[in-house]
Sequence to fold (684 residues):
Amino acid sequence: MLADGLLNPSAELHRGVLTSDAADQLAALVARAANAPVGLIHFAQGGRLRLHGGWGLSGAWNEVADTPIDESLAGLVLDSDDPILINDLAADERVVRLGAAHRGAYIGHSVRDPHGAVLGVCCACDTEPRQWTAGEIAAVAEAAQVCTLLITEQLARHEIDQQRRFLDAVLDSLHDGVTACDADGEVVFVNERMRQMWEDAGLPGGDLPLDGFTDADGRALSQNDLGLFRALRGDHLRDDEVILHGPDRRTRHYLIDAHPITGPDGHTVGAVQAVQDVTRRRRVERFRTCELAVTMALADAPSIEEAGPRVLEAVVDTLGWAHAELWLVDEAAAVVRSAAQWSAPGWDAEIDVPVDLPYGTGLAGRVWQVGKPLWIRDVGQPQSLIAEETAHTSRLHAALAVPVREGFETLGVLTVFADTVEDPEDELLALMSGIAAHIGQFVERRLVDDLQRQLNRSKNEYLALIGHELRTPLTSISAYTELLREADEKTLVAEGPRLLEVIDRNTNQLRHIITELMELSALDAGHADVQLAPMDLAEVVRDSVSKARTAIDGAPLVIDDELPEQLVLPGDRKRLRQVVDNLLGNAVKYSPDGGRIGVTLRSNGRAAELAISDTGLGVTADEREKLFTGLYRTSRARDKAIPGTGLGMTLSRAVVSRHHGSIELVDHEGAGTTVLVRLPMDAR
Fold:
C-alpha cells in the first residue's frame, strides 16, 4: 500500500481545489473519451481516497466519497507506477484480494504533480466486462494529464495564496510599518502597523496627501518627500530619521529604510519602505536629558530663586513646551508666590503671571489645595482655572501642574504649558512629578543648610552672650555687692539704696535674658504651649499701642495707627501680645532721636497683615535676615550703644512660626525699618 508519507502535502486539499462543476465536467469527459458509463476523479489524502469529481454514479456521493485506499480499486493505481487496465474485475486476482465483490471493467491513471508525487487517480469504469481499446486507454491518459495541469495550476495558485497569507501575517506582526508601491507610484501593499501609523499621524483613511504636515524645519511636505517615493526615484535610505509635525502640531520621529525594487531586466518595478516610529524612544531620551539638565541646574545654585529660571528653561527646551512657572507656598499669607517663569525663545505672546495666587485659586492655588497633579487639556475651555483673557492672549492650551513636595508637605507648584491641545500622558506626568520631587528636595536641603548655618552662628552667639551679655551684669552685681560688703555704716546709709538699685537692675536684666532663652528654647523644641483659639488681634494691637504711647509720653516720638474695629483669627493671645510688644518696643528703642512710628493691621485674602514701621536707625539689606537668627544686633545699634540682647526678633519669629505665619523686614521708603507679620485667618 502507498505510505502516507509518500503523498505530497499538496494533496491535503478538499473538493474546493477543483470546483465541483469543473471536477464533474472533467469526470464526464473521461467517461465519454473511454466510452464508459462512469468517470471518477479521486484525491489521495492521508491513507484515504476522497472523491472530487464524478459522472454516471448511480448511488449517493457519500457512499463513495471517502474510502480507505487499501480497500479501493484506485489504491491499485497508487501502488503501481503504471496505469491499471482491468477488463474483467471479477476475474482479476488483485481485485479479489481486496475482499469486495466487483463486476465490470476498470481503467485508471495516476494524477501527479510536476515533481512526480501522486496526487490522486483519474479513472473510467464499466458495469460489464470489456476490452479497452488503445484509443480509450490514450483518452483516459490524456484526461489524467489535463487533470494534472488543472490541479497543478490550482495548487500553484493555492501555494501563492498561502505564501501571500503567510507573508501578510509576518508583515502585519512586525513593529515596523511596511509600504510598497509599483513603478507608477501606486501603493500596492500596506501592513497593519503602517495603517496604524497613518491613523496616529492623522490620516485615518490611510491616504497619502500630507496637507498640514511639515518637517522639523517647518517646511510643508508633499508625497514626493516620503521615503517610498524617494526610493522609487533610485534613492537608498538606511536609518534615515524624519521628524514630522502633523496638523495637530504634535511632533513625531521616524526611522526609515527604503529601497527600489528592480526587475530581471534591471529596471525599477517598484519600491518598498520600512518605517519605525521612534517617537517614544526620542521622548525618553528627551526626558533623560531634561532630568539631567534639571539636576545640573540645581547642583550649584545657592537658592531656589536663582535655580528656578534655569530649571524651567531646561523643562521648556527639552520637552518642547511653550511656557513654565514655579510657585512657592507662603503658608502664612495663604498664597503661592511666583518664584520663576520661563517662555520658549521667540515666544511673543503675552503671558500675564500674577505675583501670587490665593489658596485654591488659579491652577497653582488649586494644586496646592488638592495636593495632586492637575492636567488641563485646553485652558481656553470654561472652568479651566485659567482666566479667559489670559488664555486667549497667551495662545496657550494644554497645562500640567504638579505639587512640589518634600514628604507630605507641599512647598510649591510646578506648572508647564503647551501651545497645542494635549491629552494626558502618564510618562510626562511621571517626569514632571520627578522634577518636582528634585525641586522639593533642593528647597528642603537649602532649608536644612540654612538651619545648620544658623545653628553654628547661634552657638557662637550664645558663647558671645555668655562672655558679654551675662558677664556684664554679673560683673556689676559682683562689684556692687563687694562695695556693700566693705562699706561702713555711714556709707551704707548714704550709698546703700543706690548700690542696691544697680544690683536689682542687673539682676532683672539677667532674669530677662534667661527667661527669653528659656522661652526660645521651649518654642524651638515644641515644648512651649501655643494655645490657638479665636481672638481679636485688633484689640491686642490696640492695647499694645496704648501702652507704648503711655511709655513715650513727652518724648519726641509719635505713634500713628490704622486698625480695624475687629480682626478675629485663631491665635495665642498671650504669645501674640508678646510679639506686638516686642516689635513696638524695638521701634521705640531704635528711634532714639524721635520720629514717627506707624502701626497698620488689615486682612489680605486669607491672611492678616500687621506692619510696624519706624523712621529710626534702619537695618541694612544684608542684616535683615540675621536679625532672626538669635542674639544678633545690628551694627548701628551697637554703635549707638542701645541696650538689648538680640533675642526679641528670634523669639518673635518662633511664636509667629508656631502660628503658621511669617515675619520679615520689607522695603521701607526713606530711613527706618518696616516689619511685616502675616498670620493665617483660618485654622491649620
The longest strand covers residues 251-262.
